[in-house]
Amino acid sequence: IANMNADVLYDKELKVLSKTVFPKDSLLRGVSPDLNLDALSPLQTLVAMDRSRLNVDLKSNGLNSKVTYGLEDKNLGGDLVLGGAKFRFSGNTEKEIRLENSVASLQDLIKKINTIYTFEAPPLDGDLKVSLKLKKMKELELLLHANALTCKAGRKTEYVLDDTMISLGFADSVLRLNQYHTTFQKQKIFATKPSVVSLRKGIIEIAPLWINDALKVSGNYNIDQKKGEILAYADPLDISHQLIDLSSKIDIQSSLDGNRTSINGTVTILGGNVHYDMDQKSFPTDSDIIIMQDMKKKEASPFVDNLNTMIKVNTQKPLLYKTADADIKAKADLTIQKTEKGPLYTLGTAEILEGSVYTFQDKRFVFKKSLIAFTGDVSTPILDITAVYDAIKYEITIRVTGSPATPNIIFSSVPRLSRAEILSVLLFGSIDGAGNNSGDDMMKMMGGAMAKSALANAGIKIDYLTMGADGKVDIGKRLTDKIMIIYMGGEVSGAKLQYDYNKYIKGILTTDEDSSSAGIIYRRDFE
Question: Are 513 and 379 part of one and the same domain?
């Protein structure tokens, strides 16, 4: 196991000097292969004791420690250097022993400890202040503080936890979470109520775990049988965030059986207000566009594959969305469903209540009862939305059906107008524009105006946009004063690079999945 040489000296005090070497064929290497015995070998120990004091001095490549213990007063003090990470401790064995440390980088600390003992650490980094207390040699208290912790969830994705504090206690096989708080994406997550987790005879019992002092999680899990039941209940759970103020009732039951997980229950929205987010600058991308850097091999997830869930989401009171341009009330009756080995489905409807209002270019559109139906993939719902605009002489109704990718837009009016006349009223305030512009041209104007308005409200600036009656969309962005790149939607998507040589001559390179071409456009104005 180990080779040890020791010398014992006794004069006014007792001294024991020893040197321990762990050979390459030590049995300890097989018992704990993650322990780096080479970093501990040779381990030199000096123990000195007199009538009142005991001193212990350990030295090795990776571990150094000096400890002083009072045999009469029971006071303990010293330091421990583990892989370059230094910890100080002090106190009294009959009262309290404290260990404290502050690090600027959690990953640096983990790397230092890994030189002694290898373990798989979570992808966390950030500053950390640790305070550990041992009371009466039987009760542990741990206090953690961090200004900012970063968790990497992929090559480009990371999550940041701000202002994190965790207070833990451990005694008699019971872990007590005294309190905690953190901020994730400007949402506070906290608990001032104590949470309790115990381990007895191979059974983990949660009784309970609190989230935001409102969501109560309780249950048990048998480690040997890999079975358990977990309940989550709140009435209400209030969330206040820059995106939404939401009050909801939650009643969720989870069953664990080996690799199988079943989650069932109901989330009832009791009411809330949705706030416009000026920092939200993302929007759905075309399914034809693939960003190669974001592609990665899909990894199997036993949890997701074996997940069985049915969660109902409904509203007791409407959700409100109110801005300078919108006053919309909506209700939902949805079911989130998944079977083992199957995909995740969203089923049900979201309803825009009659009387909701949206203002576009100083024109007030009032919604009739409208539905958004979900039949599986949440990104491809079926639309049935109707809004009415009361002009001075006309009542114009716009109905949108189909899917977001291929919408059908139906115009009607009282008294009856042609589509071109309706579009002229919407764009110019009268039917006079119908004689100067075709219906297709005004459809492009309408689509372009609406899309540019929506993108501008979301903080996205574009330089070129056209929308055809067939749903074809072209979006352009200037790279320089002379160069513009244009994405061309439609049945065959493509891209066009346009170079403006001067006000009369343009060079164009066009490519799509079928062909590529180059051309020069010469334009001259004649009087």
Answer: no
Q: How many CB atoms within 10 Å of residue 465?
A: 19
Q: Are 283 and 454 in contact (CB under 8 A)?
A: no
- Determine the structural domain holding residue 12 and report its residue range: 1-73
In the numeric block, the tokens 């949470």 are attached to: 195
The distance of Cα 61 from the centroid of its chain, to the nearest Å, equals 41
Is the domain of 412 the same as that of 495? no
The alpha-helical segments, DSSP class H, found in 155-281 are: none
Whether residues 249 and 398 fall in one domain: yes
The residue from 73, 93, 115 where one domain ends is 73
Block mean pLDDT (10 aa), the chain, length 527: 88 90 85 85 92 93 92 93 84 92 86 85 87 90 93 80 94 91 91 92 92 96 94 93 89 95 96 66 45 52 88 94 88 94 93 91 90 91 92 90 84 87 77 57 56 45 54 66 74 75 80 76 61
CA distance 287 to 292: 13
User: pTM of the full predicted structure?
Assistant: 0.69
What total number of domains does the chain contain? 3
Residue 211 in contact with residue 189, Cβ under 8 Å?
yes
